[in-house]
Amino acid sequence: MSVMGHPSFGSWNPQSPGGFGGGNLTVMDKVPPDMVHLVDAYWYQFPPMNPLWHGILGFTIGVLGVISFIGNGMVLYIFASTKSLKTPSNLLVVNLAFSDFCQSITMCFPMVVNCYYETWVWGPLFCDLYGMFGSEFGCVSIWTMACISMDRYNVIVKGLSAKPFTKKHAALWIFCIWCMASIWTIAPLLGWNRYVPEGNLSSCGTDFVNKEWIHKSYILIYATFVYFTPLSIIIYCYFFIVQAVAAHEKSMREQAKKMNVASLRSSEAQATSAECKLAKIALMTISLWFFAWTPYLIVNFSGVLGSAKITPLSTIWCSLLAKANTCCNPIVYGISHPKYRQALEKKFPSLVCGESAPKDDATSTASGVSAVTESEKPAA
């Protein structure tokens, strides 16, 4: 089969687990001539993957790409066209949706085409661009989530003593996020590491199997600043958020007990509870990001440290999980964010599942919060 020919399932040798073409063919036999110099010699030991895996990956990535494109596009439209959602904190949410939207456009379609041809067909230049875009948008996403957690920390933990978070602050944070991400993703184009086809040949990323120090140092330092640092910030913020919420709820219960009422909710308590709900949404989003990108980090570190044998088939799942994360955030906000559900119901009522969202902003803000009824108020 030629490199650019149609997929041929008949050539697969079932005696070669996960491989294609028997013992005489390797991954390198599927690489176009202009890409050979970018493929590390490490992959020479593996046979080409079974075309069935390419078919499964291509179909799955195509479906995820469509969901991500529609979902994040809808988030951007609703947040941009709904006045009550145009808050400084939600600018960070819009930035996250924009990053995921761009990733779905730049990542999914090229990968579907590559899966059809069972190799990278876009040439060296687009391999650089593909790897750069994937790194850029992934970096923007995790640091945006770190900023969201810091904003929640500022509101919930510091409370009234917190410095107000304005749109100027949000714009500055977003600008810094994109600048930092651009610096890290341009570095491989300037010689610090490089973007190369991965073992599955359907996507490009940083060279994590090269044992030269210039390549290893980039992976280690990049992971420190783009994975471990924001993750540490998120853990720190949510540790104190949970602590503050627990202390607040305990105080409310004790006060209600002293006043002999079932519950006690002032307007301040209602606002705090609403902020806690938003913090839970952010925590859910961040957890999904963690589970999606951690396998990719493990594979990269396994390549750099040589602690485990990486196969082309293992890289395919990491690519799939990382790109699947882009379609999770719109679903999370569609299910959990009260004001977003309210706007979604107005603009796309057929897409709202479950109970209808509250009909006004005041009710939405205090959604799910127990209010003090007349019977619960202490007697004068």
Automatic annotation (TrEMBL):
Keywords tagged on the record: Chromophore, Disulfide bond, G-protein coupled receptor, Glycoprotein, Membrane, Photoreceptor protein, Receptor, Retinal protein, Sensory transduction, Transducer, Transmembrane, Transmembrane helix, Vision
Which parts of this chain are annotated as the region Disordered? 355-380
Which molecular function term from Gene Ontology is one that the record holds?
Answer: G protein-coupled receptor activity
Q: Which GO CC terms are listed, alphabetically?
A: membrane
- What is the recorded membrane topology of this protein? Multi-pass membrane protein
User: What are the transmembrane regions?
Assistant: 52-79, 91-117, 129-149, 170-192, 219-247, 281-299
- Any GO BP: phototransduction
Q: Where in the cell is it found?
A: Membrane
Q: Which InterPro entries does the record match to this protein?
A: GPCR_opsins, GPCR_Rhodpsn, Opsin, Opsin_lateye, Retinal_BS
Q: Where is the composition biased (Polar residues)?
A: 363-373
Q: Which CDD domains match?
A: 7tmA_photoreceptors_insect (cd15079)
Q: Give the domain of life.
A: Eukaryota
The family annotation for this protein states: Belongs to the G-protein coupled receptor 1 family. Opsin subfamily.
Q: What is this protein called?
A: Long wavelength sensitive opsin 2
Q: Give the classification, highest ranks.
A: Eukaryota, Metazoa, Ecdysozoa, Arthropoda, Hexapoda
